[in-house]
Every structure is written in C-alpha cells, then in structure tokens.
From TrEMBL:
Organism of origin: Mariniflexile soesokkakense
Transmembrane feature ranges: 95-118
Lineage, top ranks: Bacteria, Pseudomonadati, Bacteroidota, Flavobacteriia, Flavobacteriales
Protein name (database record): Preprotein translocase subunit SecB
Taxonomy, superkingdom: Bacteria
Keywords for this protein: Membrane, Transmembrane, Transmembrane helix
C-alpha cells in the first residue's frame, strides 16, 4: 500500500447531497428519546471525473421493542476530489484500493453533515432534541451496506 498522503481539505468539494429516503415514525409523546443508532455506508467512485459518492444508511430504533417509533434515512454525498489519483492504488487485478484515511475523512464529513440534516428533520417531531452521537469514521469503514461499486 502507498504511503499515506496528506489530505488537503481545499481539494475536497462536497458538491451535492441527495436525501434518497427519509421516513419518521414519531413518538406518541415527548421525552421518550431512548434510541439506538445503526449506521452503514457504501462507497462508489468515478476515477475519470475524480468523483466519489458516499452513501449513508442511518436508522434510529427506539429501545422499547413495543414502540414503533423510529427514523430511517438514506443520504448520498457527492464529492469532487482534485487530486483523487493520490488517494488510491491499483492492485495487479486492476482493483482499486482507496487509502483508509482518505475514505475515513469523507465518511467523517458525510456523517457530520447527516447529523445536522437529521437533527433538522426531527426538530418538529416528538423526537426533537435527539443529537446523533459522534461516530468513528474508521469504525464506519467496516459497516458497509454492500460492496463498493463504480458509477
């Protein structure tokens, strides 16, 4: 694997956010905000256009199994990376392997942005006030929804 390359934030451009799915089943009353969070991710890329898409799948499930309250979000974050060629290497079989720190950086940006979007989406519900926890991007790397794909 290549030596880790310094990541220059000025060369990372988040140019589009797509809320693919959003559903909220509200609580019957405020104050029952005992939710657990499940997060998974996918990564897609287009090397010629220097683009990477991070897909996040975020579920909030109420800890009371009798409650139907919860929320489900699928969000896509589209990035243009000026120096994308510096952040991956090609294996002998032409498989592309992105550097872990690079993908973790994009996951961190994506999840942080998703936290704000979700906070706003639930602000007018009985679930208002739920703030998603800070999640380690390195841990999210292993929580893939499905295999990474090319665009």
């Amino acid at each position: 694997m290549k030596k880790e390359v310094e990541i220059n934030p000025e060369k990372i451009h988040l140019f589009h956010i797509n809320i693919v799915e959003s559903s909220i089943k509200d609580l019957h009353q405020k104050g029952e905000n005992n939710f657990k969070i499940n997060v998974a991710q996918t990564t897609m890329h287009n090397l010629q256009e220097e683009k990477v898409k991070i897909g996040l799948f975020i579920d909030l499930e109420h800890e009371d199994v009798t409650s139907e309250a919860g929320a489900h979000f699928v969000l896509d974050f589209h990035f243009k990376i000026e120096d994308l060629k510096n952040h991956y290497e090609l294996k002998e079989d032409n498989a592309i392997i992105f550097l872990g720190v690079f993908i973790a950086t994009l996951l961190g940006i994506s999840f942080s942005t998703a936290r704000g979007i979700i906070y706003e989406r639930i602000s007018n519900t009985n679930m208002q006030g739920i703030i998603l926890p800070i999640v380690s991007p390195q841990k999210m790397l292993v929580q893939k929804k499905e295999e990474s794909k090319n665009d």
